[in-house]
Amino acid sequence: MSTITGESQPSTAGIRLSGLVKTFRGPDGPIRAVRGIDVEIAPGETVALLGPNGAGKSTTIDMLLGLLAPDEGSVSVFGRPPSEAVANGDVGGMLQTGELIRDLSVGELVAMMASLYPSPLRVEDALELSGVREIASQRTQKLSGGQTQRVRLAIALVSDPQLLVLDEPTVALDVEARQSFWTTMRAFAARGKTVVFATHYLEEADAYADRAVLMAHGVVVADGPPTEIRARVGTRTIRATLPSVDASELLGLPGISSAERRGEAVALRCTDSDVAIRALLSAYPDARDIEISAAGLEEAFLALTGDRDEGAAPRGADATSRGGED
Amino acid sequence: MPLLYTRYELLRTLRNRRFFLLSLGFPLVLYFVIVSPNRHVRNFDGSGVSFALYYMVGLATFGTMSAMLSCGARIAAERAVGWNRQLRITPLTPRAYFRVKVLTGYMMALISLLALYAAGASLGVSLPAGEWLKMTALILVGLIPFAALGIMLGHVLTPDSIGPAMGGGISLLALLGGVWFPLPSHGFLHDLAQYIPSYWLARASHVALGGAVWSTTGWVVMAAWTLVLGALAARAYRRDTGRI
User: Fold this and answer.
1) Could you list the residue range(s) of the whole structural domain that residue A300 is in?
2) Could you state, in order of their start, the residue ranges of all structural domains in chain B?
3) CA of B87 to nearest chain A CA: how many angstroms apart?
């Protein structure tokens, strides 16, 4: 049940990132965190910025929010520069790193933040929506990590923003908390709000976004419906011990796109691992130690971009992100 | 200025117990320890001011400086947890942000000041009402550069480094400003003190001697510090948008 009040008015202009470039000075020379990004987001869309750590997601989000000025290119949020959209109260955000300030109760803190906006939600509604009503009277320094994230969501939601930006919001959450977090976010998005979130979980992009923008090495490598992206990066690999068979022979099996011999073992990259494993076992019943694994995002992105010429992957400011369980 | 926001910021500051121990308790205890045995000294070390009044204002200088600069320590702590970035994606303007920070600093300074006035009065400091007011006004004006200094340090230093930096800075400013003992009436220390804001703060005690407590030099020096530190604070704030 949504308890949000007030009507959203999606303006015709959405969000436009054009030709964004951002380079940081690093200890080993310049770090090209974002190297030319063009993305347009229509009002009401929920878009995932998907990519491994260091892809430039957080840097892009910082520029989207006006926290960082791009070296080149421009950002437009509902037809204005980000700073104006922020000043107008159109933007709510949950940044990647962040705890809460101390010595206030949860309710007081949310009320404090709500007071900065022209037309906020009722504080009780934001607390309810984020599932922190029960802890409204607790001091912020006494919360668990999961509770803190939910209070941060309440702060982002209480402004009743047209654009909600979430930078890896679920990294610190367990599975259950993650689920209820996204339920809240979906309810909010369903009111015609624009949502942009960064994640390195393919599953999150798949389940909760209308569209996924795949980033790697500071550029967009794919942009489309999550199902399409999943098909492109969701390749699986079969590994098995199978000594006396030639790799080229295995390539003849259905569902396999490449085969590689590594000593006694073979590694088969699959276009359809279900078909491939059946074919493999019926043709070579002596195959053993079989292992089917999904490619990690990082690996999949490298395959997708074929981009190893830059040497080590650029460590953008993204490198500070806390790792998930993958 | 956003009222509700300001109210919660003040409330939050008042709930911080460490402040009351350090910025408020320490100068008070020190005051009683130093002054109690010497409370009847009418003209302290040739300053023309009674011992009790001299140290009341001296320790008020120390306490209010600490209160103002502790505003910076809070900023550093907020930055470290990413709160400053969170504030920057709200409609809170930098101007309002600074105002609230300065106001918070002044509230704490005022509490410290009133506590020392009470302590002074209990040890025999007595002044006409007009002089209490004049002295208070001078101290409040004299704190402006310290407000800017606190905000600047808060946006430049980390929570780990700001403690020692402030502790050392306040001690030095107190020493050179004549908080602990009257400065010589001429010579290097005297000349140096003319350029130090804490000297002019501590001189507010001279209100009991009548005449102009701050010379033109005093006003100019304070204005210059305010301008320079204010500009540096604004610059530090502007540059401080990154993740830490």
Assistant:
1) 235-305
2) 3-239
3) 9
